[in-house]
Amino acid sequence: LIGEHTDYNGGLVLPTATPQRTRVELARRRDSTARLWSSEADPAAAPRAYAVGDEQPVGNWTDYVQGVTASLHASGYDLPVGFDLRVTTEIPLGSGLASSAALEVALLRGLRLLFDLPLDDLTIATIAHHAETDFVGAPVGVMDQVASSMGEEQTALYLDTRSMAIARVPIPEALEIVVIHSGIVHQHAGGEYTVRRRECERAAELLGVAQLRDLDEADLDRIAALPEPLARRARHVVTENARVVTAVMALRRGELARLGALINASHASLRGDFAVSTPEIDRLVELAQAEPGVYGARLTGGGFGGAILALVPVEQGHGVAMRVATRYAAETGKRPTVMMPRDAAR
Ligand code: ADP
Ligand code: MG
User: Fold this and answer.
1) Residues near ion ligand 2 (Cβ under 5 Å)
2) Which atom from ligand 1 is nearest to the alpha carbon of 64?
3) Which of these, 168, 268, 293, 310, is most buried using a 10 Å CB contact count?
4) b (16+ CB within 10 A) / e for 92-115
5) Is there a contact between 238 and 12 (Cβ–Cβ < 8 Å)?
6) pLDDT tens across 100-125, in order?
7) Nearest Cα to Cα of residue 182 among 298, 58, 104
8) Using a 6 Å cutoff on CB, does residue 99 contact ligand 1?
């Protein structure tokens, strides 16, 4: 919902779960092989395989699976045998809607069941996060994995990524969430993401703090003295953390106009200070913000393509989504997909 690019800075996030699902089917094997199918990543291909206990990154989607079993091992859970795995999903891959976390969490839940592993949901999120950062090598924060493992629809998950404290905040019934995928998947998001992360780390170093989380709006003058682009990057993180705190308050009090203004401000900051938006995403956000009744809209996910979300009055989600998506498609020639509300035409 809000709190973007704050998680790897030890900051605050406020995600919620979308209705889309990733499903895994698992069967025990007698040997230590894992055989893997994914209808999304490898349509009609022969299964991929690796030896459980001998995981090696190969640079394709199986790294996420290998990362999970390697990360289980590193946490002290060894699987007695291998498995056959088939993955299907409704989540678009590489679009900022956390398909990678969904795969890791679904697999860990499946393995928990199959091998009777004593894992709670927060441990699953942590092991999934290690799989992605340590094995796959994507330096992501922990938000997606926690949201995937512990999130619920119509509830916001207020997470402090430093203490891992979690509070659940109900989303008022008067509010409907619209999510529209721009139809753009950026291959280079991984590279730019890493650049942003390094910029944040460098800014923290120059300001003499462990993480940007240690700063707040009282430090904005010091932040402004950093060389560019570090000043703008740090300003986004510090103001975004503050917006999350205010958004939680607004959500709890049902102050939807205020919440919407924070969502709009988050987008402006991601576009300007953090430079992770694109012209197409900006246009989608603009179209959504211009709809009568819409409280606010922003890009959601890491950026460089992907999806937007808009907060709208209940019962109006379908109409808003269809009008925005139709206009966007006509203007850009791209093929948007309405992810929420789920019953909106695709
Ligand atoms: P996001 O998590 O925002 O969708 P990422 O770049 O973090 O984007 O993760 C996308 C990658 O995760 C895919 O390129 C693929 O390697 C892997 N992945 C996610 N879901 C699946 C799936 N259902 N089957 C196979 N691989 C998947
Ligand atoms: Mg991901």
Assistant:
1) 100
2) 17
3) 310
4) bebbbbbbbbbbbbbbbbbbbeeb
5) no
6) 999 999 999 999 999 999 999 999 99
7) 298
8) yes
